[in-house]
C-alpha cells in the first residue's frame, strides 16, 4: 500500500487498539475468520502486502481485513489455494481500500473481488489533496500519524515480525474512519456522484497486458539499432524465465540498466560480461548465462530482429503541426477546467486521451468526440465535464 509524507507533529499511532492479532494460516482459522466477518456489520477495510521487490510477480503475502464487530483479521494466503470463503461472506459488502489498483489484482488471484468499493486515494484526489499516499491522507482526515518504516520490507518472510504485523494491522484499522471523513467531504463539495462512478469503474480493473513487455525496460530508448534491441529482448526473456522459475524479483537477477549496458557492449564471453558490469554480485555461471543469451541474439537473421519504431496503423496522415496546435489547445482547456472544478486534470481525463483526441479527423465534432471517449472508456462524469471544453478548444484551432 502506498504511503506518502505526513505532518510529523501529529500523534503517532504505533499500536493497534486491540493488539496485534495472530496470523491465520490454517483451514480452521480461515473458517473462523469467515464467520467473524459474516457476523460483522458495515463496510470492510481491506489491504494486502506484496513482496514484489523480492519475489516474482505481484501475489499477496499478507491480507488484512477489518469490520465492525469482527475486529482486525490478518491472513497468510500462502497455505491456501484461495480465499473464497472470505469472498463468499462479503458478497454485497462495500470494501474500503487505499490505492485499490495496487491490491485488486493480487486479491483477485485469491478469488476475492468486491461488489462495491470506496478508494480513499481516489477520494482524496477528487478533493484536491496535495499528497494522497495513505499516511498523508490519514493525517489530513483523522489527525494521526502512521509509522511507515515497514512499507518496503520482504513480506514473504516467515514468521513475520511483530512490528511488521502491527504496521499491517494499523493500515486497515484507520481506513474505515478515513473513508467516513472523505465521504462526508465528497458530499459536501458535490463530488460524491463523480467519485462513485470512478469506484464502480475500478471494480473491473485489470492490469494492462503489454504485447511486448520487454520494451518497457528502463533506458531502452538509448539502444539505436535492431541488433541491440534483439539483444535486450533476449536478455529480458532469459531473465524473466530465471526469475519465474526461482520465484525471485527480476531486478534481483539483472537490473534493467545492466541489460541495456550489455545490449550495447561488445560481449562474447563471460569475461566480457564482467568487464561491462563489474564483478559485483555476478558469479561466473551467471556471467556465462548472459553471454550465451547475447550470442543467441547475435545469431538471429536480420529479419527476425525487432525494430526501434513500431509500424503505425495505415490511414490518413495528420498534419503534425496541426495536431500539436490542437493538443496544446485541448491541454490548456483541460487545465482551465481543472482549476475551475478543483479536480486534478489527469483525473478529469487521462492525458493520453487528450493527446489522442487532438489527432482525430475533427475533434470539434461533439458526436464524433463523444463516441471516441466512450470507446476509450471515459466515464459519464468525465464526458459531461470535458466534452464541451474539448470541443470549444478544438474549434478554436483552424484545421
TrEMBL record:
Leading EC class: hydrolase
Enzyme Commission designation: 3.1.26.3
SUPFAM superfamilies: HRDC-like, Ribonuclease H-like
Claim: Lipid metabolism is one of the keywords in the record: no
UniProt-recorded Gene Ontology molecular function terms: 3'-5' exonuclease activity; nucleic acid binding; nucleotide binding; ribonuclease III activity
Keywords, ordered alphabetically: Hydrolase
InterPro entries: 3'-5'_exonuclease_dom, Exo_C, HRDC-like_sf, HRDC_dom, HRDC_dom_sf, RNase_D-like, RNaseH-like_sf, RNaseH_sf
Protein's UniProt keywords contain DNA repair: no
Gene Ontology biological-process entries: nucleobase-containing compound metabolic process
Ranges for domain HRDC: 225-304
Domain of life (superkingdom): Bacteria
Identification of the protein by name: Ribonuclease D
The species this protein was found in: Brevibacterium yomogidense
